[in-house]
Amino acid sequence: MKQARFLLTLDSAGALIVGLFILLFFSIISNLTGWKESFTRMEGFANLIYGSYSGTLLLLFGRGQLRRIFVLALITANSLWGLQCFVQVWRLQEEATHFGIAVLLLEGIYLLVLAYFEAKFVLPQCVSNLSRVS
User: Fold this and answer.
1) Reported pTM
2) CA-to-CA distance for 30 and 24, rounded, in angstroms?
3) Residue 34 — φ and ψ, nearest 5°?
């Protein structure tokens, strides 16, 4: 149970902090990474959306109302976004800096590992989709 709460907190807080940081300093980050400002802003907004969603799941978990379908959506989204990071590495390899490439690689790895641990520790703690919560 502690692992599930920790993972959802890590997912939510990490994404919210990173998203806010990126949006506040997108111009500097764009220069450091070699990413276009529009791509950098998209990264920031995506992190805020992820953080908000996983934060909502953390609240539902605390109430004992977290449904498997919501966690499956989170695991799927984390996995797809992680794979998207690897696609962006390939797409941006000519224009991004080494730092920008490293950031995307690490983000992709982080998200895939996070998805794995959420499947292993959060999913088993969920309320079944068929059971009713009063």
Assistant:
1) 0.89
2) 12
3) 80, 15
CB 111 within 8 A of CB 74: no
pLDDT of 127 reads: 84
CA angle 65, 69, 70 (to 5 degrees): 65
Kind plus residue range of the DSSP H or E element containing 26: helix 26-33
Q: What is the CA radius of gyration of the chain?
A: 16
* Residue among 114, 120, 128, 119 nearest 50 (CA): 114
The residue length of the chain stands at: 134
Tracing tokens 């920008």 back to the chain, one arrives at: 100
Percent of the chain exceeding pLDDT 70 equals: 96
User: What are the angstrom distances between the C-alpha of 111 and each of 63, 71, 96, 116?
Assistant: 25, 14, 20, 9
CB atoms within 10 A of CB 108: 19
Query: pLDDT for 29-62, tens place per residue?
Result: 999 999 999 999 999 999 999 999 999 999 999 9
